[in-house]
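Exercise: predict the fold of this chain.
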Amino acid sequence: MTTAQKYADFAAREARGVSPAYERLSLAVSGDDEVLALLDELPAPKRQPNLLFGVVRFLGGPVEDPAEFHNYTTANWPRIEAQMRVRATQTNEAGRCAVLLPVLASLPKPLALLEVGASAGLCLYPDRYAYRYGDRVIGTGEPVLGCEATGALPPLTLPEVVWRGGLDLNPLDVTDPADVAWLDALIWPEHAHRRARLRAASAVAAADPPVLVRGDLVDGLPALVAQAPADATLVVFHTSVLYQVPAPRRAAFGDLVEGLPGHWISNEAPDVLPYDDLPEPPDSAHHNVLALDGRPLAWTKGHGQALHWFA
């Protein structure tokens, strides 16, 4: 897929109906030969829309008007390029806990949670947040994570978590204003509710920081697993992470995690972590597949806003 096609696909399948600003911007970039030529100087994993738009926002550039975005991007490309080469999309959306909760609630308590691609670790606190599935509310914490859920969900209860660990190539610190500014820049322009959620979830993490380790998802995993308490159920999980990992490393990670004790929860796009005989997704928008120990359970939306259980 060309860079132009990636931006057009992002507009149609991810931004449409979710972020009008990013839909406009993605469509504009898909037909902007000058910006596309600049992007094509970067390694393929660094050309993604979320990274470009997040860096421009982080640097204070405009993302609402495509013409202003073009002028800013072409005029400031050396600064933008430098940031894109050293940064990665580390969207730390606590709302994803809403699609993880049905699986976590089904596992033997207590849990030792280990997130791969943890960013600042905000998804390591599913027991501290509250959830709203339609008219049903679970928990009393903040933030309250809303999720549109369909299908026959299993019983939903808050998990008991006794240990939290995260692995990331560049772990972020919610007590560092620069790290929080980068997380804020990755939130889409219209999503004020997600900015409020980021602040609330950051306060939870800052009050009880998790173990966050800098490391590769294959080389760094065994040592972090060894820190988890042996009398808890180990749960290694990740969501929208493996698309940034080269295919050989994905395969090595899959082989490694399948051999670990405990359980493996994955929440990735079906072209990144494929499965046989998946049912049709609910619509043409981008969906991830939620799976437990390699068994697909549900279609999910990227920010945890929707869950279609089919298991």
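Check your answer against the key: The first helix runs from residue 3 to 15.
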